[in-house]
Amino acid sequence: MKQRGGMAAAKLLCMALVFWGFLRQAAAQEGFISIDCGSTDSYTDSLGIAWVGDRRYTSSGANAAIDIKKANLGPDASTDRRKLQTLRYFPEPVGKFCYDLTVEASGKYLIRMTFLAGNQSSLNSTDFSVSLGAAHWQDLVIVDPWTPVVKEASFIALQVNLTICFRRGTNGDPFVNSIEVRPLSQYGYQLTIDDWIMTNIFRIDCGLKAGSPSVRSGFGCSPHSPSITE
C-alpha cells in the first residue's frame, strides 16, 4: 500500500511540475504576437514560442510558399526556417495593405519583420515602404532574394490598435514573411511620444564562434520622429 501511495504521489508531483512548466511558458509569452505571414497553421517553434497564421490580422494580399533550400539563413537557421517558408504579398496596384494588431496603449514594444523573396520571381527585385500606424517607418529595397532582410524597432504604442501597412514602390509587390511584436520593460529604452520609434541600424554578435548561435549581442539604434502619412 505504501508503495502504491508513493507512486501516486510521484505521478501527482510530475503532473504538477508539467503544469507549472506550461504556466511559466505562457507567462513568459504574455503580450507576444508572432505571426507567420502567408501561413494558415498554428505551431510552437523549437524555442517554445507560439506562432499563428495571419488571416485573423489582414484581409489583403495572397499567400505563397518558398523553397528555402538555397536561402542564406545563418547560424540560427533552425529557429528561422519555418517562419520563412511562407509569405504574404500584395499584388493590388494601388492603396496600402495593412495588418491590424491589438496592443496596450502607451506600452513599449519591440517589432521585428523578416523578408525573404526566395524563388518567388515576381518579388526578386522590389521596393516598398512600411508604416507603423500613420507614421512612415522604413523604405525597403530587396535585391538578394535568398538572404533574409530583418527590420527591427522599439516603439511606444500610441493606442490599442496598431496597424502595420505596406505601400508599393516603383518595382514589384510588397511582401512580408513574419511579424513579431514583443513587450518591453517600461524601464528600458528612453522613448518619448515625440520620438516614439527607435530603429535598429545594426546588430553585433560578441563572442560568437563560427557555426554557433549567438550568445551575447548588442545593437545600434537611431531614435527619430517619424513622418506622418495619410
UniProtKB/TrEMBL annotation:
Residues 35-209 form the Malectin-like domain. Transmembrane segments: none annotated. It is found in: Membrane. It comes from the Eukaryota. One of its GO terms (cellular component) is membrane. Keywords: Signal. The keyword Plastid does not apply. InterPro entries: Malectin-like_Carb-bd_dom (IPR024788). It holds the Pfam family Malectin_like. Its main location: membrane. It is a single-pass membrane protein. Residues 1-28 form the signal peptide. PANTHER family: OS05G0393100 PROTEIN, OS07G0107800 PROTEIN-RELATED. This is Malectin-like domain-containing protein.
